[in-house]
Each structure stands twice: as C-alpha cells, then as structure tokens.
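Schema walkthrough. Field components (list of strings):
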Amino acid sequence: MRFVLDTEQRLLGDTLHGLLTKAGTPALIRRWAAGDHDRTLWSALGETGVFALAVPERHGGAGPLPVELVVAAHELGRHAAPGPIVETLAAAALLDGSAAAGPAAEWLPRIAAGQAVVSLGSPGRIRRALDADAADLILLADGEHLFSAVPEGPAVRALDPARRLFPVRQVERLATGPAVPRAAATAYDLAALACAAQLLGLGRALLDVTVKYARTRRQFGRPIGEFQAVKHHLANALTGLEFARPLAYGAALSFGSPDFPRDVSAAKAAASDAAYATARTALQVHGAIGYTDEYDPSLWIRKVRALRSAWGTPADHRARVLAAVPEVRGESPR
Amino acid sequence: MDLDLSPVEPFRAEVRDWLRRNVPATPLPSLETEAGFAAHRAWERTLAAARLSVVSWPEEYGGRGASPLEWLVFEEEYYAAGAPGRVSQNGINLLALTLFAHGTPGQLGRVLPPMAAGEVIWAQAWSEPGAGSDLAALRATATRADGGWRLNGQKTWSSRAAFADRAFGLFRSGPAAERHRGLTYLMFPLDADGVTVRPVGRLDGRPAFAELFLDDVFVPDRDVIGEPGQGWTVAMSTAGNERGLTLRSPGRFLAAADRLVALWRAHGADPLLRDRVADAWIKARAYRLKGFETISRADDAGAEASVNKVFWSELDVELHETALDILGADAELDGDWLEGYVFSLAGPIYAGTNEIQRNLIAERVLGLPREARR
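Field assembly_structure (string):
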C-alpha cells in the first residue's frame, strides 16, 4: 500500500501546471467566453496526453487511467481551463462502451490526439450541452439509444461566462442496446470524478491566491492575514480541501470495482463542499475586489459555483453514497 | 499509487477472529466510573495476554512490532467489533511515544511493560487553572532536591486521573519569565505523599478528569524524561501525536459512521437527516484515506497534525449530534450514543483547542504572518 502519487504521476501534474501557466488561462477564459474557440491550448493538452487518458489503447489512447485523469483534471481545474474537457473525456468512455464500432473507430483516435472537441447531453441528467457551438461532435445518450445531436438555439446565459450551455436535439442514431446505458453510467461516473478533481484544483488555486492576498493586503496598519478571523477562514478552507483530495484518489483506484460509483459520489460531494467553502472564503477575504468581473479570481469563484452542481449536486451524490453503504450488525456506537 | 491491503489481510483476519471470540457480549460500564474503570483495566489485561494491547510496539515491551498499516487495520477491526474503549490510551498513545523518542533504555524497560499489561494506567497532567490554551504559562514547579525533584502546584483537567495510577506532565524548573524554556517533563505516582486527587465531573457528571494538588511531592531523577529544562521540546513531540492520527484512529470513526447509517435506517431513514448521515460516513472514509496517505509519507507530526485534529474532532461532534437528532426525544436518555456525544464535545477543546490549531495551520502550513504579540 502506497497511497501517494508516484514520480511519473507527479511529473504529469507538473507538466500540465507549467503548460497552463504559460498559456495564461485568464485571458483564454475571457476569449472563450466571448466565443473565440481557438484550439491552441486544446491541441497542446492533446499532445501532453490528457485526452488519451480516457481512450483505450486499441483506439490510440493510453487509458483508462483514472488516477492520471484525476491528476490532470486537478491541474485543469487549478487553471480554470475553458472548454468541454470533462465532456470530451466522458464522451470517450461513452463511445468506447456503447458498442458503436463505427463512431468509436472514427472519433476515439481523434479525441485521444486532441483533434476533436466533443460535448454531450443526456435527458434528465445533463440537460444542456457545454460549449456545443465549439464541438465537432455532440452526443446524446437517452436510455438504450446513443444519438449525435446539434445545438437548438443560442447559449443560455449562465453565471460562469466561459460555460456556454446549449439545449440540443438528436439527429442521428449511433447505437442502440443495453451497452449504451452501461457506458453512459461509466461515463457519468468518470465525468463526476474529473469534475471533483477540477473542483479541488479550483479550490487549491483560490486558497493560494487568497493566502497571498492576505499576506500583502494591509488594513489597520498590518497585513489582514494577521487577524485570527481571516486565519481561521483560511485554515478551514485548507482542512476541507486536504480531506477531499484522498477521496478523489481513492475513487480513482476503485475504478472497475462495484464501489466505484459510491466512491466517486463521496469524492464529488466532498470536493464540491470544500471548493465551494474555499470560494466563499476567497470572496470574503478579498472583499469587494473579489466581487468584480475584472478581477481574475472571480472567474474561478464562478466556475466553482457552476461545477458544484454539474454532474450531480452534492445532495444527489450523498444519496447515492448512502444507498450503497452496506448493512452493519448493530446501531449502537460502542 | 495503490491501496493494496492484501498483504495485511492475514493480520486483519487474525485480529477479527480473536475479537469475535473475546469482545464482551454486553458492553462494559462507562470507563469514567469506578466499576467501569476496573472492568476496562481487566480488559486491557485480556488484550495484553493476546499481545493485542500495543500491537505497534516492539516485542520486548509487549507489542508485536506491527507496521503503521497493520496498526490502522487493527484499529479498524477493534472498533468494528464494538470492543471497549481504551482506558490506557493516554499512556500508550501519548507517554509511550514520548518515551520512544526521548526516554532512556531504563525508562522504557521500567514503564512500558506494565503499561502494555494494563497494570499501570496513566493520566496526563498538562493544564493548570491559569494555563489552558496558553500552556507555556504554567506555574507548577519542580525544585531540585537530593536525588530528584519536589513538585508543587496545581494541575487540572487531568483525564483519567480520578482512577489512574500515575501521571506525566510539565513543571517549571527555571524562572517563570522564560515561558517555553526552563520546563521539565516528569512522571509521578498519583498515590505519592503530597498528592491530592479531586475528581471533577464532566458534562454528564461522570468523573472523567480530576484536579491534582501537589505539595512537595518527591520524584526521583530517573522519572525525568529528556533533559531537565527541555520539557517543552519533549512535550511537543507528544502534542503532535495527540493531535494526529495516533490518538483518534480512523477505525473508530468508520465504525461509528457505519452504525450511524444503521441507526438512521432503523429510525425510518428520515430524508431531512440524510445529508448529515451521508456526510459523517463520507468524512470517516476521508479520514481513513488521509491516514493511508499520512503513513505512506511517514510523517505524522507538526502542523499537519493540526489539520487532522480539527477534522476528526469536528467529525466526532457532528456524527454524534446527528445520532442524537435521529433519536429524537429519546436523545436525552442515558445510553451509548449520549455518552459518545458527551465524549465528543471535549474533542475540540483538549489537545490544544481548535482555535489554537487553526492558528497553527494558518501560520505554519499556509505561511500567514504571526499575530503581533503584546
């Protein structure tokens, strides 16, 4: 048992952190929000192997590698990278598992290489497709059917300007059968896990920037980070994030076991709460500047609020956890 | 990265089997009562006879040299089996670890085997009426005497001291102005001449701790741990243990969370309480995994331990509060959940209040500036 990242896994995280730092995501996020879907970053992520993590080897990928997926999603969250990244990763699992040989052979190698942007929807679960206008392919999983789809009308205005959400309608059936809902379930769990990891990365970045601000911002003749009220908010934020992280990696390690959906839900609920509490603290400690559109961390704060409810609300995931807890003998706490 | 526990499964199976055959069928009386204390002491002897009282210690002192992972597994099985609370915990989880780090071979050989066997139960003697969160303000003194030291002063909130045999704590052996310097770490018998023990009822009235009045109590040199005057440094190594994994292992929260889910289901699975029940279960799992992370990194001390302490102590309160809310109007009746609740309420206070821990996290982990002190 060695429950820490190995050297290669850490290197993947460091590489992505370097790449995304250099890319300068705040400007990219604002451009993406304005409808500029430049794919330079997407291609670079593809070259680093991010999308290959969800694509099996027979289709040109390296996956599924859930631990590495969590590492990558954490860094993508830390930099609030825009675009349907989680959706594309989930689409890979959906195409691979749906017994849709033709579409899988056509799209999976392109996804793995970072040459395809894919979005998806599913009635009831994923009601609007993220960045559908930027996607080369939109999937719609509905019961035993897998369809391709197209946007139906303009994006719905949302809190995070970089999350452009579209209603979609089906156009062509790609596969039918019991494999589709099974693949959709796996894709959903992988997406929820990646979303949890993104939230942890978003939370980490918000904690770091807020600590930095508290050390330099002066009021009453001293850095505000000297005040216990501020310290305790930040200590709570760290504590929440520190204990949500092992749940995400634990879930990644249970991929393929019957515990995977339960463990994903535990991770998603905890990461949502931890990241959201951190975002609230970031806003409060920054004061009015954090409440402005022009201050970059506000992009992170808005994304946290959005992802908290994306891929299942905390309440959905808590219910799923409890439904999966086995019976024990007694009900006394001895 | 992996979570492969298969190498420790044989050990888990052995522990589980022994516990199934030996855990008392009916719960022991509360260990914070005279009869309960005696029953728990007898249970420690039973554990020791099976070499299960201190599994992580070296064999020569009564343990079996278990790895940190085996210890975590032992704890999981221990609490899952509903085994009695550990009346020896102050000794085996705090003093013993201090002795392993700072004790002489003579002290280890003299103190540890009777501790492992449940023959000597230890109480802690840190706080004083004027030194709680600000422990370095303590005033009880150790004065040089022929062949040892004379202790004078008052200690308070001394857990288990109402019925325990010996105690360990810090005493001022230099000028008061030195705060962290000039302190000495000593062990002393609670039945020695000059020691008066006044049991103090905790929130539910049970004498879970005591005040100690020390009037020229003689302690021989051999019962000083570490160098005289270096007591603060010695004690802080224990503080890291107390706040971290060792005092409150994940196993106890995993077992309590499973039982909370069972309690919730047995009482109609009220959807209004569902999120809180799920949260307790999720947090217990998080603490388990964090424990695996900690032992994989092999450092369970310092400011990181403060993060642990805040987490488990608040989880414990939340978990028991939820249980009482499930019990509804019966929550106020004496019972295991109520006793667990009362016990949990002390967690955010002892071993350094959670406010002190948050200061440590902010300053030592996050690097925020220390508050300007008057």
